[in-house]
Design a protein that fits this description.
Elements (H helix, E strand, L loop, with lengths): L10 E8 L9 E9 L6 E8 L10 H7 L3 H5 L4 H13 L12 E4 L2 H15 L4 E2 L4 E2 L8 E2 H9 L10 H7 L4 H4 L5 H23 L20
Parallel strand pairs: 1-4, 4-7
Antiparallel strand pairs: 1-2, 2-3, 5-6
Length: 229
């Protein structure tokens, strides 16, 4: 029985707090990230930093309300030109072969629609981990990604138990203590919480699909659609 998963890349679960709702123009104010080992599914490293946008005047009131930051606080954050390369170096530390095929798999909550477009913009703008030929970031895997929001939609698209798919509603539904739910919209707190959800989902999938000592699986995928033809 195979004991090592097919996946050879660690996961990088991350969350970006920003100064606006538009991922194509907003600027980052905080980064939170953790590395989850692909085999043990344990957090093995973490990163957190606040970051001063180049245009502080563009920060939206709604963003301040969500994060709890004030414009005065943000004005004292370290410059983007310092923090962003530091984050890139931290992620690359977990890319053992230093190529896009071994880059960590990006994971988070709504990263496909929101965080990843921002990552691409920053990689291109600051000329860090940018693939000129493919016109894409090479900080993370360009093939695989794990968006917990999509997975939650699959689980609850026909289930009214979860009122909304916002992070705080999800955490409360899954049994997180109220003091942890109250800490939502802080990048490192959200990152750690979403990492726990992702780990739970992966463990469930492995439990259902990995063979036991007799070679049987609780959920057999091989030939599962044969009777459709």
């Amino acid at each position: 029985m195979r004991s090592i998963p097919i996946n050879f890349n660690n996961f990088c679960v991350f969350d970006l707090e920003t100064g606006g709702a538009n991922p194509h123009k907003c600027e980052i104010t905080q980064i939170g990230a953790v590395i989850v080992n692909r085999n043990s599914l344990k957090i093995i490293d973490e990163f957190e930093a606040k970051m001063k946008p180049e245009d502080t005047n563009a920060i939206e009131d709604g963003a301040l309300q969500a994060t709890g930051f004030t414009r005065e606080q943000i004005a004292t954050f370290p410059e983007t030109a310092i923090v962003w390369p530091t984050f890139v170096n931290w992620v690359n530390k977990h890319n053992k072969k230093n190529n896009v095929y071994n880059a960590p798999i990006p994971a988070g909550y709504n990263i496909i629609g929101y965080d990843m477009p921002i990552i691409r913009r920053y990689c291109k703008k600051y000329k860090t981990a940018w693939d000129e030929e493919r016109q894409d970031q090479k900080l993370f895997s360009q093939v695989y990604k794990f968006d917990v929001l999509d997975h939650m939609w699959y689980w609850f698209e026909n289930n009214p138990d979860l009122e909304k798919l916002k992070i705080e509603y999800l955490l409360r539904y899954l049994g997180f203590p109220e003091d942890i739910v109250a800490g939502s919209h802080d990048a490192i707190n959200d990152t750690k919480n979403i990492a726990k959800v992702m780990i739970r989902l992966i463990k469930m999938a492995r439990h259902m699909t990995e063979p036991d000592s007799t070679g049987k699986r609780k959920l057999e995928m091989r030939g599962a659609l044969a009777n459709e033809f």
